[in-house]
Design goal:
This protein is mainly alpha-helical. It has one helix at 2-44.
Length: 55
């Protein structure tokens, strides 16, 4: 039982770190997908000659 008491804190901290990193990477992936969708939508919009950006 002593071995469990010694290793358990490290396992718990490791699991917390793993869940935190997984959440960060999932949020980053979702943000990159949303940015790609927004960029694709912006690229598909027609450019009007009267837009000041085209001058």
């Amino acid at each position: 039982m002593e071995y469990v008491a010694v290793i358990l804190p490290s396992l718990v901290v490791g699991l917390l770190f793993w869940f935190a990193m997984k959440a960060i990477f999932n949020a980053d992936k979702a943000e990159r997908q949303a940015e790609a969708r927004a960029q694709a939508e912006a690229d598909s919009l027609p450019v009007r000659p009267s837009d000041p950006e085209t001058k």
